[in-house]
Amino acid sequence: MTIPHEPCVFTLFGALGDLALRKLFPSLYQLDRANLLHPDMRILALSR
């Protein structure tokens, strides 16, 4: 049995902060390169 996945939006507040730049963005990049993110996933990065 397969479970249907709905599109999702990963919303990141504080996209220019130290944590986002040093940890979150590189991690998301590696997940994408390994094809571990769903094709319908969108990443929305917000900053002031």
UniProtKB/TrEMBL annotation:
Q: Which residue numbers delimit the Glucose-6-phosphate dehydrogenase NAD-binding domain?
A: 12-48
A Gene Ontology biological process in which this protein takes part is: glucose metabolic process
Q: Which GO terms describe its molecular function?
A: NADP binding; oxidoreductase activity, acting on CH-OH group of donors
Its domain of life? Bacteria
Name of this chain's protein: Glucose-6-phosphate 1-dehydrogenase
Q: Which organism is it from?
A: Azomonas macrocytogenes (Azotobacter macrocytogenes)
